[in-house]
Design goal:
The protein is mainly β and about 750 residues long.
Length: about 750
């Protein structure tokens, strides 16, 4: 679809609105309010504001919705927010693959590649997406910001931002929590305790969460359950307010996540090296590698807010560490074939200081500085025993990143109704990576599990250029910005438009099997245009929001897999240009007291405008003979994980029954078919999927407890969530979760 066809999107969207009536973010619901829809406050622009006054597309997900629909990780948001896709990486990591409006990375969201969509927790941008699948508990809200956010949120926001805000200490004593049990031996327990230490001066809070369940899969190797989850989070706050204009909060968090691989080998077709004709598309996996993914992390954040003569000053200081391990049976057949073992440890430190002030009554200025450094060390073992010789490749990596930025975002109220905005961010990024790649000849019968630790019985092979280590260092200077205007047509309607530029820093490839693949690859840029309307009607019983967007993506960083003899080169290359454009419609309606109807509708068109598979000369037009290694053009093909349609609708009804307060929520989400990779192999086509979620709760009036029954994917839909074809070896993939259900006991004292 070309930009000239934008006009055609408008009637399509209008028809869709008439058909489904409302389409506000399905899970962004507030409690049904008497007399209208409750106001939702967000910090999408690092200042508190009513979401209806923020001139960009923001989808807030309340803490109540997170609890009701058991959104245990960001992957549960997949399909329920317009043009948002969140998947679980099928490799040896716990990283979340996040795509917004077709921009993002799913197949290998590693530390070496950065991320197009930033995950921000309490103002701290995470250096990797390894924390995107951890437990989302005791959360005030999640805000999904669509489009480049490079002005306020740093260098890696070409696609958008997921902003997570946890519940802060209240200063009053209180205990609240949830105990849940369900199928697959689900056992969840969450509790948060607020307590004063010195009245109105010093207070604290402790939150503890445990999430556990058995796996959904059966291991054909030993008949045992596979894919279990064990997640524990411990969070503590200490809040000091010595005077009315000073607020200092220290937050510390420790997390541990244990899960097992759910890697499908049975997506391959006959002719692939790793193909099991005895496995159907179901929850069965052949895995002869014990263990799975383990993540251990700790994070410490000091947040200072001071309202003084120079304005509202905020300083955020953060330090965190993580350690992760993972094992993966890629082959899925009766041998140690193409197995992977990985271990990573890293840390990050960041400092942000910003100030909001008013040099004139009509001008709101935000200026700030940001600095971040992080390091990731890893080692990995890949086994290719069917090669000659039988290769065991050991990769050692050490990556260090530095980033520093100056940024400003400014609003000028030209009149009571017209407001102009201008923002700019200048960023300096430096990336350094060193890697040693060693290859060993694996003798027949040698235990691979021992090899990964001490290489017992292995013979070092000449593996040029793996010795000495490959290394590289490179710096880039980038800029992002945003320029736009919004106009208050009436007290209930605002129209807006803006241009934004986002960027993602360049980098190097880690754990490569060939020295030439280390890189570097260059920064990518996205130029985005958006126009929209936000409105409310019928005494705020109806809200209707809509936006049109166009993204021009250049120097795209694309993960590509190349099978070359006995090795697989999985590298990031700059792939040229792409375009994404579409419509997002959001509405909610409080049709009568106690009843709230909410939903969303997203339409997306995406295509590569310029993209060759390699840097080799292009392949000649068919039917001419295709030279070995020639570059295939993927121009015109759709981007992966960019479905044409996403939609969701939720009905919520609160009522009195049996001397208590009851509530019922029913949700339907739909995602149309999409591709799992740019190559668009037949095995990479992911079909459309519709899911039903529900919650029903009851509690005695004016009591401190309630009970609830909940369910996700109630129709027990079996569907492929991710797929990646690596010819001629295999097609990897993962399945979406089956039907899960359970009961909650919620208490609040």
């Amino acid at each position: 679809m070309t930009s000239r066809k934008w006009v055609g999107l408008i009637p399509q969207a209008a028809v869709s609105v008439l058909l489904c009536l409302v389409s506000y973010p399905a899970i962004a619901q507030t409690e049904a309010a008497v007399g209208g829809i409750e106001k939702v406050i967000v910090t999408a622009e690092k200042q508190e504001a009513d979401v209806q006054t923020v001139p960009l597309t923001v989808t807030p997900i309340s803490g109540a919705t997170i609890e009701r629909f058991h959104i245990e990780s960001l992957s549960a948001l997949d399909g329920s927010v317009p043009n948002l896709q969140v998947t679980v990486n099928s490799g040896v990591s716990l990283a979340a693959g996040v795509v917004i409006r077709g921009i993002g990375e799913v197949n290998n969201p590693t530390a070496y590649a950065g991320k197009e969509v930033a995950i921000v927790v309490d103002g701290v941008e995470q250096s990797t997406n390894q924390f995107g699948l951890t437990n989302q508990f005791d959360v005030e809200r999640i805000e999904v910001l669509a489009g480049p956010q490079g002005t306020l949120f740093g260098a890696n926001t070409t696609g958008g931002v997921i902003n997570i805000v946890t519940r802060q200490p209240t200063g009053e004593f209180g205990v609240n929590g949830i105990v849940s049990m369900g199928n697959y031996n689900t056992r969840n327990a969450q509790v948060a305790i607020d307590f004063p230490i010195i009245d109105d001066v010093l207070s604290g809070k402790i939150s503890v969460s445990h999430v556990g369940r058995d796996g959904f899969y059966t291991n054909l190797y030993n008949g045992q359950n596979l894919g279990a989850l064990d997640s524990n989070t411990y969070r503590g706050y200490l809040r000091w307010t010595p005077v009315s204009n000073l607020d200092i909060t220290l937050k510390s968090e420790i997390q541990s996540v244990n899960t097992e691989n759910t890697y499908l080998q049975n997506l391959s077709v006959p002719g692939a090296v790793f193909y099991r004709p005895d496995t159907a598309l179901n929850f069965t996996i052949y895995d002869n590698i014990p263990g799975g993914n383990i993540l251990r992390s700790q994070s410490h954040t000091l947040t200072t807010n001071w309202n003084g003569p120079v304005g509202e000053v905020t300083a955020i200081t953060n330090y965190q560490r993580y350690h992760s391990t993972g094992n993966l049976d890629v082959g899925g057949i009766d041998c140690y074939c193409l197995d992977q073992f990985g271990r990573n440890e890293g840390w990050q430190a960041s400092q942000e200081v910003r100030d909001v002030f008013h040099p004139l009554p009509s001008i709101n200025m935000l200026v700030g500085v940001f600095a971040q450094t992080w390091q990731d060390k890893g080692n990995g073992v890949s086994v290719v025993p069917f090669a000659s010789p039988n290769l065991v490749t050991v990769g050692l990596t050490n990556q260090r990143n530095w980033s520093a930025s100056l940024f400003t975002q400014n609003y000028w109220n030209v009149t009571d109704r017209l407001r102009l905005q201008a923002g700019l961010r200048l960023s300096w990024d430096s990336v350094s990576l060193s890697e040693a790649a060693l290859s060993y000849d694996q003798p027949n019968g040698t235990n691979v599990l021992l090899l990964r630790n001490n290489l017992i019985g292995a013979t070092l092979l000449p593996y040029a250029p793996g010795n000495p280590p490959n290394s590289g260092t490179k710096s880039w200077t980038n800029w992002g910005g945003k320029f736009g205007a919004d106009y208050q047509v009436t007290d209930e309607m605002m129209v807006y438009g803006f241009y934004a530029r986002g960027f993602k820093s360049g980098g190097f490839n880690g754990r490569v099997t060939r020295a030439e693949d280390i890189g570097p690859f260059n920064p990518e840029n996205v130029n985005s245009f958006e126009v929209g309307v936000k409105s409310q009607w019928l005494d705020n019983r109806l809200q209707f929001n809509a936006s049109l967007f166009l993204n021009k993506w250049t120097n795209m960083q694309v993960q590509q897999s190349d099978y070359d003899g006995p090795t697989i080169a999985s590298v990031i290359l700059n792939a040229g240009k792409a375009t994404t454009e579409g419509v997002e419609i959001q509405a909610q309606a409080a049709l009568f007291d106690g009843f709230l109807l909410v939903g969303n509708l997203g339409y997306l068109q995406s295509r590569y405008d310029q993209f060759f598979s390699t840097t080799n000369p292009p392949c000649p037009p068919l039917p001419q003979q295709q030279p070995v290694g020639c570059a295939i053009s993927y121009a015109g093909r759709a981007l992966p994980y960019a479905p044409n349609w996403t939609a969701a609708i939720t009905g919520s009804y609160d009522f009195d029954v049996a001397g208590g307060d009851a509530s019922v929520q029913l949700q339907y989400t739909y995602t149309s078919g999409k591709w799992g990779n740019y190559t668009q192999a037949a095995t990479e086509r992911l079909p459309s999927v519709g899911l039903i979620n529900a919650n029903i709760s009851w509690g005695p009036r004016d009591s401190h407890w309630s009970i609830a029954l909940w369910g996700r994917n109630l129709a027990d839909k079996t569907y492929v969530a991710t797929a990646l074809d690596v010819p001629p070896l295999f097609t990897e993939g993962t399945l979406g979760n089956p039907r899960t259900w359970g009961a909650d006991l919620k208490f609040n004292f």
